[in-house]
Fold each of these.
Amino acid sequence: MINHPFLCFVPILLIIAQSAEGCYTSIFAFGDSLTDNGNLLALSAPRIIHQGRLPNGETYFHHPTGRCCDGRLIVDFLAQQFGLPIPPPYTEVSKERTMDVRAGVNFAVAGARALDTDFYDKIGIIDPVTNDTLRVQLDWFKHMLPSICGPEKDCGGQLKSSLVLLGPFGGNDYRYALFQGASLAERKLLAHLITDAAVSAVNELVELGVGAVMVPGLVPDGCLAVSLTYFGSPNTGNYDLSTGCINWLNEFAEYHNELLQTKLNMARKRHPTAAIIYADYYNAILQLYRNPEEYGFRRTTAACCGDGGPYNYNKEVQCGDPPTTVCPDPSVYINWDGPHFTEAANRWITSALLRGPYTLPHLDTSCISEAASARHFTDA
């Protein structure tokens, strides 16, 4: 059992979220490696990529699942909190035609970008991981609608009570652009295109009948071990000395997130009856770096799983590939493998989203029982 001080907040949530009928009857997810629970692993077969090897998955599943994490992701915790099965990866259900997908499917693919491959090909930015962008994932979802809606083909009724986790998107778009020398002006142009793509997807999902769409903003990229390794500098003025994070990367994430929120407000005006929710991953995560001990963490910027160096990250050797090693206790680390978070961090982020300060408007938590919340936030 992993104990974290934030668990004391759960009873506060439960005062306003007693067990009742309501909430969501299914959860569908789109995104990149922060949300992918096995799609890239399956799409890469027969080659076994690093997230298909231990220690990935060791904490909760006790075997690798394709998640870039030692255990559960935010989408997994959300599903469990709402009393839903963890949504299976699209690659699994597309092969097993008999699976009931009405409770949800995960379409996210590690490495996915918001903008289409054709766009990046024209401007010379190469993605070495995947071509399964936001648009591809949406197409998979629409192709699966007959199975999701059931024999009655009541998509409106089925999707109205669904929660869609849309993202986060943009991290890979910006990272690959930065690796290939994009200027700040070029990245700001990308930000408008990326947030347009995200909001276009929101509009499309709502028009298909989805009742609630949660759109996360970017994480504080300047705090990640991968970013600190790639973009580290001897100039201490580049860093927030209280957290060790790179200022200019976090400032750009803030720029993206403000732009996204402005455009989501426009989508809310267009769809006043839909719940279009902004999930503030950025500030929910930044609290862990600002006050790590308050939340049970002792290691912040270094990765738990890696191959040495100041931040235990080596771009040539990913977690799961030899000769990487893993820390003895992932629960005291925020960062798992360089770009991603530990289950312990994902657990806290989910709790923060459910408690309300980091979602706007708030998620419907009316159906979360005290027993279920305690069980899923404390089991290991």
Amino acid sequence: MAAAVDMAVQKKPQSAVWTTVKPFVNGGLAGMGATCVIQPIDMIKVRIQLGDGSAMQVAKSLYAREGLGAFYKGLSAGLLRQATYTTARLGSFRVLTNKATAANDGKPLPLYQKAFCGLTAGAIGACVGSPADLALIRMQADSTLPEAQRRHYKNAFHALTRIGKDEGVLALWKGAGPTVVRAMALNMGMLASYDQSVEVFKAFHFSEIPTVIGASAVSGFFASACSLPFDYVKTQIQKMQPGPDGKYPFSGSLDCAVQTFKKHGPLKFYTGFGTYCVRIAPHVMMTWIFLNQIQKLETRVGL
């Protein structure tokens, strides 16, 4: 009897630790699973933003020149990004909403509080995941550069090591400003609209699958509309190269936004919106589906 009590006492700290890290682990695994499915669309989106043509033109060109594997170029960086960014943002969001709900006497959170939690979680996740995001963008854009300017990164860890050695450790956070702002906008649009849409679909007595698909589509649209302008600026900053005079084309995110607006107008920030929206909505949907299945599995095995 005493042994059984001792074992129960020994398990409590482990249970407390698991309870704390569980939202982070589940979020990261769900994001990584979704990325494996969405990576080809993300690759096409980046190439469109770099001026390689329409979605169909990019897809045909990629397949003709580099084969099927080209669509998964940068997958290691994408998985690393989810293991950092999504782990941090979904875990932080759950911690923040749990604390806010407790402070609200257990009542459901109003929309503005969910949006604030999403903004905060997005900022935290972006700060953690910015280096992996930089590696992903560079790996995907590398083959579009002239041969002399290509970096030939082998994988995400090779890219991070090279960037750190060649440009300094702080260069790993190049473009972190627009990355954080973009993540805040995306998570506010995604999380707040998703939760609100789920409530509406449930009010009309939709079953689980239509609710998830419908809410994900609404969530993906608002996440795309809120975040694409910041994503466009972030991509331009992260992939820019110094000119013959050694100067970069943009002095920073604000300069990039101003120059783009003056030269091309506001719609330039929504270049590739269709593909971007198609990528965001399925990724949101797949993330929630993976997360739901992970939680069901944990319940079955008693975790």
